[in-house]
Amino acid sequence: MNADILLSVKDVSMNYGTGRQDAIEHVSVDVRRAEILALVGSNGSGKSTLMKGMLRLMPFTCGEMERKKGLRTGYMAQMHTVVRDFPATAREVVLSGTRQERFSPFYTKAQKHKAEEAMRLTDVTELADTYLGALSGGQMQRVLLARCLAGDPELLILDEPCSALDPEATDELLRTFVSLRDEKQVSIVISTHDWDFVRHHADRVLVLDHHVEYLGDISGWNGKEDEHTCHH
Amino acid sequence: MPSLTLWDILSDPTTLRAFAVGSLMSLCLAVMGVILVLKRYALIGHGLGEIGFASTAIAALIGLGGYSLAVSVPLVCLTSLLIMYFDRKSGMGGDVFIGIFSTVALAVGVIAGKFSSGYSMESSMFGSILGVSAGYMAAAAALSVLILAVFILLYTRLFSVTFDETYARASEMKADSYQFVISLLTSVAVVMGMRVLGAMMISSFIIFPALTARRLSGSFKSMIVFAAASAFVSFTGGMLLSVLSQLWPRHLPVGACVVMVSLFVMLAAMAVSSLKTKK
Predict the structure, then answer these.
(1) Which of A74, A87, A100 sits opposite B156 (nearest CB)?
(2) Which positions 155-214 of B are in contact with A (Cβ < 8 Å)?
(3) Range(s) of the domain holding residue B153
(4) Does domain A5-62+73-191 have CATH number 3.40.50.300?
(5) Cα–Cα distance for residue pair B219/B233, rounded to 1 Å
(6) Which residue of B lies nearest to A70 if distances are taken between CA atoms?
(7) What digits encode the pLDDT tens for the residues B131-150?
(8) Which residues of chain A does B217 touch, with a Cβ-Cβ cutoff of 8 Å?
(9) Within a domain: residue B185?
(10) pLDDT tens digit string along B3-23?
(11) Which site from A19, A88, A164, B80 is most exposed, i.e. has the minimal number of CB atoms within 10 Å?
(12) How many Cβ atoms from other residues are within 10 Å of residue A131's Cβ?
């Protein structure tokens, strides 16, 4: 695999687990180093399923995937999947994202340092000791992003990270993604309905409707923008 | 015959053994209960209790009644792994399989109990802590230390798997292995606790301390500490109540006393939490 490619899926298909209907069919795409790859498509078009396949959370029914050896990934699932009233502080959540290499009830100095740095990058340092239930939607997403960053990821897979946020929190989070790519050379695969973000910041776009409708630079896309577009 | 005093009862080696075993067991069940309640899997405690009941009846039937731990621990562990396996494979939800296994176990236990001589179904169902032998105490103490040690050692990973299992899987953490560990530790804790609280009430020690702690804590770590403290206070209170009742015309069983004290401790925690919220 080309050294510039972190992950490559070739001709993969997946179903929803029932075995009856394919969620995605014969999809091929590479994820390159330090790029933002936007996945767009209407609800149910297979974006989340493809992401779960990339993370090995769901199996492919055919095709194959190659990942850079030891690839470090971070994942933000859709917001409703996290229990908001879980009894934990933001710091506990961020620390849980650090790489755990030994068995101990305590985090090492290096892990604590990583967590602090991640919280600083996502601007949640002041919320470190706040109970999760007391965080706003935007703050919660930033804490979850900090958890991803604490694991020092090379690739972030983000499933509609802004879907439940107000325009201001959305802008703030999207700016953070861009700076992660530009300053930390993190690759980002993001599913979104936000064509403004795609147009201005994505390096490539994958338009998905169970199969690949388009993959490439946004300037080459001549089709209709998604009907669920969320402008702000 | 001179009448018994409270000191006579409290200083009796049987009472002291019961107190030591019960305290250790309550700590183990409470810390495991935090994980099970947060993962919405608390019913497993009740199911495993009934499977434990069947295993003690089977032990008596095959003439190993004196070594019930040696029969119950592997049987309950194996069944809990089977429940987890079927749950994962079918995607129907763990409660379905807990229901199937526990009712079948109850039936097996009742039938096996009828064929076993000298088997007390009542003490198996409702506990008989004062019958704890020195050998049982040593085995229970060793298992409790093992459970607590594994829990402490895996603390950070257990947090990750409990808070967000999907993320743990996506981060290449062996989430299934930790689920197995949780199942095994819970099984061992339930088997030990059955002797004290009985098969029917064991789940109270998984659920009450966790719910009490949930009301008082804002972090995972503090929830573990509060749950352990609440379990210890509830067990001590329940045990004392039961011991005191030996001086009364009606002797109250330990299991029932502990459950009632647990309930009051939880209600007190709810009241404190409401007062804090109003302020």
Answers:
(1) A100
(2) 155-157, 159-160, 163-164, 166-167, 169-173, 214
(3) 6-270
(4) yes
(5) 21
(6) B172
(7) 677 888 888 889 999 999 99
(8) 87
(9) yes
(10) 667 787 778 888 888 888 889
(11) A19
(12) 17
Residue B278 lies in a domain: no
Instruction: Give the containing element (helix H, strand E) for B189.
Output: helix B175-197
pTM for this entry: 0.87
Domain for residue B1, yes or no?
Answer: no
B275 assigned to some structural domain: no
| pLDDT value at A230 more than 60 | no
- Grade residue A228 by pLDDT with cuts at 50, 70 and 90: very low
Domain extents in chain A? 5-62+73-191
- Among A74, A87, A147, the residue with its CB nearest the CB of B220 is A87
Nearest-by-Cβ selection for A73 from B154, B160, B170 = B170
Mutation target to probe the A interface, by most A beta carbons within 10 A, among B88, B164, B225 is B164
pLDDT at A33 exceeding the cut of 60: yes
Taking only the tens place, the pLDDT of each residue in A58-99 is: 999 999 999 998 899 999 988 666 677 799 999 999 999 998
Structural domain tally of chain B?
1
Mapping DSSP onto H, E and C, the string for B195-226 reads HHHCCCCHHHHHHHHHHHHHHHCCCHHHHHHH
| Amino acid code (one letter) for B95 | D
Name the closest residue on chain A to residue B165, using Cα atoms. Answer: A82
What pLDDT is stored for residue B94 in this prediction?
66
